[in-house]
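Quick review question:
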């Protein structure tokens, strides 16, 4: 993988993702990639997370360069997938790639068909009561 962009995550998201990792039965390579991202991230309080950063619960518009397609998805934990018609799990390869990025950043991430380059186009945080 090439040099990855800086990412910023909230401490609350990191704690919850780590809980999910502990009880997961996911493929080891996916878990390893996600743990590597958590380890290299700058961790901040949720209140200090920049508004343009992808966090759990955000609606994210992104482009996968290899297929030149744009998608809009809500980044969710596995138990929230049914709550959003456009949900993507944090444990899906592209879901893991989105976490902590900002508008304009792109990341190379292992996908089902080899490395994919994912670029963030828009980030919408949920309303505070959601």
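Suggested answer, residue by residue:
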């Amino acid at each position: 993988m090439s040099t990855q962009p800086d990412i910023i995550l909230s401490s609350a998201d990191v704690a919850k993702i780590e809980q999910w990792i502990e009880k997961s039965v996911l493929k080891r390579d996916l878990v390893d990639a996600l743990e590597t991202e958590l380890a290299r991230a700058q961790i901040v309080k949720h209140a200090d997370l920049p508004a343009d950063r992808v966090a759990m619960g955000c609606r994210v518009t992104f482009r996968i360069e290899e297929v030149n397609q744009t998608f809009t998805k809500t980044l969710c934990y596995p138990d929230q997938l049914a709550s959003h018609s456009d949900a993507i799990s944090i444990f899906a390869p592209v879901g893991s790639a989105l976490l902590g990025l900002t508008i304009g950043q792109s990341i190379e991430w292992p996908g089902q068909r080899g490395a994919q380059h994912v670029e963030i186009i828009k980030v919408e945080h949920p309303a505070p009561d959601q």
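Why it works: Residues 8-124 form a domain with the Chitinase A; domain 3 fold (CATH 3.10.50.30). Residues 28-40 form the longest helix (13 residues).
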